[in-house]
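PROTEIN–LIGAND DATA SHEET

This sheet pairs a single protein chain with one bound small molecule, adenosine-5'-triphosphate, given as SMILES. Inputs appear in the order they were entered. The predicted three-dimensional arrangement of chain and ligand is reported afterwards as a token string under its own label.
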Amino acid sequence: MFQQVRMRIALLALSLVLIIYTISSIAVYAIVHLYVIHGIDQHLHTIAERVANEYDATGNVEITGNLLPHGTYLFFAASGTLFVKTTSSLQPVLVNLIHNAPPGEHYVDLTADGIHYRVFYALSNLGKQGTDILMVAQDDRVELSVLNNLKTVIFLVGLAGMLISTLAGFFLANRVLRPIRAAWQRQLEFVADASHEMRTPLAVIQSNLNIAMGHTDESILDNLEWLNNAHSETRRLSKLVTDLLTLARSDSEKLPLQIQTLSIEEVFDKVTDLYSSIVEMNGIRYRSEIAASAAQQYFSGDADRIQQLLLILLDNARKFTPAGGEIALIAERSRNHLLIQIKDTGRGIAPEDLPRVFDRFFTGDASRTRETSNETGVSGTGLGLSIAKWIVEAHKGKISITSEGLGLGTTVTIELPIASPRSSSE
Ligand SMILES: Nc1ncnc2c1ncn2[C@@H]1O[C@H](COP(=O)(O)OP(=O)(O)OP(=O)(O)O)[C@@H](O)[C@H]1O
Ligand SMILES: [Mg+2]
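PREDICTION REPORTED AS:
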């Protein structure tokens, strides 16, 4: 598919260059042609005027060498005076023109003996003593060869330009398509992973319901175990679909943020209200702390998304911290940024897993993850940190995760630009 698109882009670029080049070449050639021919015509006309003036003044024209520059020829007949200075091959052609040309003044192109001439002629029957004839011819081979050379140059430059633009087209198309191809590849993997992740809960729901439905003689209470299994998998499936939808919308940039100025105290209070009791119910201590440097500070953000971000991170901390551990939500200021940290004393992350935790569907060592997450009833799908990363980046911030190693706790750090107090957006 990309091969075809690349070909199309290259062809499109080529046709565009070709059209522009052809139009401009025709324009340039036409202008130069007009200019050159006009120059010759003016030259012929000037000579014709001078000859006519000489004749008018003296009644007996005397054509000097000055009057006829090299390569210019004359056939002049008026009031009995005949002056002819042509080549032997040109003369019969001019005489032929006298017989066939209409009266009046005209410019024509003639060829005699392979030589090209531009000719100005004036025929008039009004002269008292027969036909007045004035013909000035100019050998214009030099000018025509200049025009021919111009044509060749235009053609050769066009050919080289076409070659270069074809190569450039392919090169540029390749460059333009590279990130698209990578995104497409990621999208394919995403869809494949998503379908795979959906298959598991669906299979579990199906098999548990099958078992329950097979026990027609038993009560619902007797089948509670199977129904519970099915129910917990529907919760997992529902979370998965919500997360997938969030990521799909964030990818297509269809998730606009409702940006407002947020106070760090208000954000922390809300999250603490929502989550501290859940953490404490799991036997984990919870601490929220705003350093003096960060107190009364504001940042621009979407309140719901920022809350979602902190809940994702607190949920991870809770999931991976055993009872007796501690989770801390800390804010401090570093230059013109707010640093928000979620620290836990839980199981930590293996150094080899650290670079991959923000990847979609990454859940680390499956056996460990499942073991710990089972405490909560709903096992992770590995999308939480991907969503967290999107939220932070949509707020022009940075997110990083560190852990000294397995069993040594984890720290997630978010960096958000500080905003001036409320007045700016409220
Ligand atoms: N605080 C933490 N302590 C230890 N491991 C963590 C922590 N936070 C994340 N991880 C590791 O990173 C993985 C990815 O986290 P993420 O939040 O993306 O997925 P999840 O929690 O497994 O699933 P979900 O958030 O979609 O329910 C986790 O499965 C876990 O292995
Ligand atoms: Mg998570």
